[in-house]
Each structure stands twice: as structure tokens, then as C-alpha cells.
Amino acid sequence: MDKILWERRERKSLNTNLIIFGPPGAGKGTYTSRLATRLKIASIATGDIFREEIKRSTVLGRKVAEFVNKGELVPDEITIEILKKRLNEPNSQSGFILDGYPRTIEQAKALDKIAKIDAVIQIIVPEWIIIERLSNRRICKNCGEIYNLRFIKPKIEGVCDKCGGQLYQREDDKPEVIKERLKVYEKQTQPLIDYYKQKIPIIEVETPQIETPPETIVEKMINELKKTNVIKTIEPK
Ligand code: ADP
Ligand code: ZN
């Protein structure tokens, strides 16, 4: 992008730094990218960063692969270093929303030293919705496209619309495993919510219905951010 455009964009941005928490299957990725676009801030997902490094087989990628592939947390030392680097990049300077970070109190404390966080958004979703969503999720073996047997059905059963690849269900998207994942999520997240509760606004956004469109949820988030004075004005869509 040319420099003037970039600067103009920067001036327009709202400079808000946010963290988002939400259980697996809450639609967190979707909301995060839309919210980031609306607020003109960067969306940063540590999981994405790690997966990208693994794909490119970088030094870091090789270091973290064993943890990520087993679904275990990458050690704080490595994770914090990666986050610092990412927050130093130019496009983090006009605000960001963190998805997947912090996962430990250590990480939260390290973040406090690098940036001032304005608010935490917490997505609250009933368990049945999560189970319904995740257990109906199917993924293309070939291109990674995501389907949902109830909402985004492939035209031909078991076959990817985009590339003809075979669709499969992730091992951890089976109901027994989902319940376990939710427990792990609660256990990991509650201490972090407690940590932030004393310092900054926690904005709880409920998604009580399975068919609520993402736009509606994102508008709710924006309204709550305004109400708590985390953001002031925002240009209409
Ligand atoms: P998931 O929803 O499957 O947990 P993420 O994309 O958030 O997906 O994370 C994928 C993997 O990346 C995690 O299982 C973990 O190994 C690693 N990871 C991501 N963020 C962190 C973090 N903040 N601390 C430690 N490990 C992380
Ligand atoms: Zn495909």
C-alpha cells in the first residue's frame, strides 16, 4: 500500500486494543475478523501464526510443531516472544484484537508489559449450540474448506464444492471430545477473566440462538464497546 494511504488509514483507525475469549465452536474466528475490519484494527491469532510457521517449516515452526499437533500449549517463553514480534509490526500500531492469546496468567502479565489492553470480549454460547455446530462440521481433506451439514451443506454429500476433495470430520469434533474441550477451555479461561476483571471492562456477548447472523453479533459487540466508552465513534459500514 502506498505510504499516504497507509497514514490516512492509520489516522482513521480507532487505536483500540482488545482480547477476545470464546469457547471452541463459538464462531470466534468469524467474529474476530469482522470486528477487526469494522474497527480498522489488526486481528492476531497465535494459532494461525504457529500453523503458518509449521507449514513453512521455519525454525520456529519446527520448534512448536510437536505441541500444536498434540493440542498442547506451546511454552510461554516461545509464545510470548512471537507475540512481542507480532505486536511490533507496523499494522499492529493502530490497534489489534487478540484471538487465542493469552492462554496463561504468565502470558497475560507479559502482555501487560508490552501493550495497554482496553477491554476483553467474552463470547457466551450455550453448550448445546457448540455441540450442534462442531459435530456437524466437515472439512475438505484437500483444500481445508469448512462445511456444516446443517447450515453450509456441500452440494454433493461428502464432497467439496470447491475442489471435489473428500470431506472428513475432525477427531476432536466428536461429541464426547467436544465436552472435554469445553471443560479445558473453562479451566483455562476463568483465571484469565478473573485477572482482567479487576482492571478493564469485560464485555460479555451472548449468542443464544444458533441461527443469529455474525453481523448481528458483531454489531452487539460494537454497541457494548461504545456503551463502556472503549470506543467512541465509528464510521458506518
Ligand atoms: P484451538 O481452538 O484448536 O485451540 P488455536 O488456533 O487457538 O486453536 O490454537 C492452536 C494451537 O496453537 C493450540 O492448540 C496450541 O498448541 C497453540 N497455541 C495457540 N495460541 C497459544 C497460546 N497463547 N499459548 C500457547 N499455545 C498456543
Ligand atoms: Zn476442497
Q: Layout of SSEs?
A:
Blueprint: H1 3-12, E1 17-21, H2 28-39, E2 42-45, H3 46-55, H4 59-70, H5 76-88, E3 96-99, H6 105-114, E4 119-124, H7 127-135, E5 137-140, E6 146-148, E7 167-168, H8 175-197, E8 202-206, H9 214-227
Parallel strand pairs: 1-3, 1-4, 2-3, 4-8
Antiparallel strand pairs: 5-6, 5-7
Bound molecules: adenosine-5'-diphosphate (ADP) and zinc ion.
Question: How would you characterize the overall build of this protein?
Answer:
With 237 residues, the chain is of the alpha/beta class. The chain has a 5-stranded parallel beta sheet with strand order 2-3-1-4-8, sandwiched between helices. It has a 3-stranded antiparallel beta sheet with strand order 6-5-7. α2 crosses α9 (214-227) and α5 (76-88) packs parallel to α6 (105-114). Helix content is 48%, strand content 14%. Mean pLDDT is 90; it is low at 4-12. The radius of gyration is 18 Å and the shape is globular. It starts with a helix and ends in a 10-residue tail after the last helix. It contains 9 helices and 8 strands. The longest helix is centred in the C-terminal third of the chain and has 23 residues, at 175-197. A hairpin with a 5-residue loop joins β5 and β6 (146-148). It has a domain at 2-41 and 94-126 and 185-222: P-loop containing nucleotide triphosphate hydrolases (Rossmann fold).
